[in-house]
Amino acid sequence: MRFRFPQFAALSAVVAVGFSPGAQAVEYSQVNTAASQISFTFDQFGSRVYGTFGQFEGTLDFDTQNPVAAHAALRIELSSIDAGSSDANTELQKPAWFDTSTYPLGTFESTSVKALGDNRYLFAGNLTLKTITRKVQVQVELKPESGIGVFVGEFALNRDDFKIGAGEWADGVVSKDINIRFRMVAPER
């Protein structure tokens, strides 16, 4: 199954975490949303479109010495979408797209984490949009920087998997595949 579309990311986003075991254990448990970002790209009429979600909350429980016990969760306020224009932002909140009045949140919750080496991890979990839940896997890289962990990842989702962009939008004006990227920042504890 391929995963894509402006959703979270994270869920992306979407969201995930990762590190590699080093000489000393390092733990991360809070996501600094002010320093973090969830973004997406897709094609519309042959042009690349970039957007972000401005409001989200993330939780993280990650120990570099025990990554299999890690847990990450993300809640994204879908109405905080910014697709580059007020017209696009308004359209994406309508029932054919996210239907934010009925489904205000997108969520990701990890179910497992596998160490891949070199500060890279594979987070598996459930991404839910419009009450539709799909399993996703996201490779995440941990970039330690002066007492903080920067977790970066990217995955793709197919908007049809979540019934996003129905009706007149189903014909290919907007690409089916949506690339979700995230950068989550968490201080060491």
Structural account:
The structure is a single chain. A hairpin with a 7-residue loop joins strand 4 and strand 5. The chain has one helix and eleven strands, in the order E-E-E-E-E-E-H-E-E-E-E-E. The N terminus is likely disordered. The chain is mainly β and 189 residues long. The protein has a single domain, classed as Beta Barrel (Lipocalin), CATH 2.40.128. The chain has an eleven-stranded antiparallel beta sheet, covered by helices on one side. Helices cover 4% and strands 50% of the residues.
In the predicted model, the low-confidence regions spanning at least 5 consecutive residues are: 1-23
Helix content: under 10%
Total number of beta strands: 11
- Radius of gyration computed on alpha carbons: 16 Å
Classified by CATH, the class is: Mainly Beta
Q: Count of helices?
A: 1
By CATH, the architecture is named Beta Barrel
| First-last Cα distance | 36 Å
The string of secondary-structure elements, in order, is EEEEEEHEEEEE
Task: Summarize the helices and strands and which ones pair or pack.
Elements: E1 27-30, E2 37-44, E3 47-53, E4 56-63, E5 71-77, E6 81-82, H1 86-92, E7 105-117, E8 120-129, E9 132-145, E10 148-158, E11 177-187
Antiparallel strand pairs: 1-4, 2-3, 2-11, 3-6, 4-5, 5-7, 7-8, 8-9, 9-10, 10-11
Properties at a glance:
189 residues; mainly beta; Lipocalin; eleven-stranded antiparallel beta sheet; 11 strands; 4% helix; disordered N terminus
Describe the structure concisely:
The protein is mainly β and 189 residues long. The chain is 4% helix and 50% strand.
